[in-house]
C-alpha cells in the first residue's frame, strides 16, 4: 500500500492505533506548524476511527484562543512558539475532546519566520494524559527545510504519544 508518509511514521502510527484500540483509548491532536499532519498520519491507518477523536488545526493565534482556550496573555508574553503555549494547547485539546491522551505542537517550520531567539526549526511539543502525566519537548531541528521540519515534528509527536501510553 502506498502512503503519503514515510514508512517509519506509518509503522509508529500503526502501533499506536493497534495499542490504543486494544486498550480502548482515544486521542486528540492540536497542531500549528504541522497543519494536521499528525492527525493525517494516524488516520492513514485503517481502523483509526476507534482511536482518533479529533484534531485541532490552530495555525493562527486567534484559532489557538478560540478552539483550545489558550490565554491571550500567554501568547503576548511568551509567543505562539513557546513551552507555555504548547502546554495550554495540549490541555485544551484534551479537555475539549473525549481523548485520554492529547498531543500539541507549535513551531517555526520555515523557511522564513525565524529570529535569533526563535530560529527556524524550533518546535515545542506537549503531550498530556487525563491521568495527569504531561511531557514537554523543545526541539531544534534546524533549518532543514519546511517539509523535513514538519515530518520530524510528526515523528517526535508520535513518540510522545507512545511514551504516555
From TrEMBL:
Organism, per UniProt? Rhizobium vallis
Matching InterPro entries? CinA-like_C (IPR036653), CinA_C (IPR008136)
By what name is this protein known? CinA family protein
User: Which residue range or ranges hold the CinA C-terminal domain?
Assistant: 12-162
The organism's superkingdom is given as Bacteria
Q: What is a single Pfam family found in this protein's UniProt entry?
A: CinA
Amino acid at each position: 500500500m502506498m502512503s503519503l508518509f514515510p514508512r517509519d511514521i506509518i509503522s509508529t502510527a500503526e502501533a499506536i492505533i493497534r495499542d490504543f484500540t486494544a486498550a480502548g483509548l482515544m486521542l486528540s491532536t492540536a497542531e500549528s506548524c504541522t497543519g494536521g499532519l499528525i492527525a493525517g498520519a494516524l488516520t492513514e491507518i485503517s481502523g483509526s476511527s476507534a482511536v482518533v477523536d479529533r484534531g485541532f488545526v490552530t495555525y493562527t493565534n486567534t484559532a489557538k484562543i478560540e478552539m483550545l482556550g489558550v490565554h491571550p496573555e500567554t501568547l503576548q508574553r511568551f509567543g505562539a512558539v513557546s513551552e507555555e503555549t504548547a502546554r495550554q494547547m495540549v490541555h485544551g485539546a484534551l479537555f475539549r475532546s473525549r481523548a485520554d491522551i492529547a498531543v500539541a505542537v507549535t513551531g517555526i517550520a520555515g523557511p522564513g519566520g525565524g529570529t535569533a531567539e526563535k530560529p527556524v526549526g524550533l518546535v515545542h511539543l506537549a503531550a498530556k494524559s487525563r491521568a495527569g502525566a504531561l511531557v514537554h519537548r523543545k526541539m531544534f531541528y534546524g533549518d532543514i527545510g519546511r517539509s523535513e521540519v514538519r515530518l520530524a515534528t510528526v515523528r517526535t509527536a508520535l513518540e510522545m504519544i507512545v511514551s504516555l501510553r
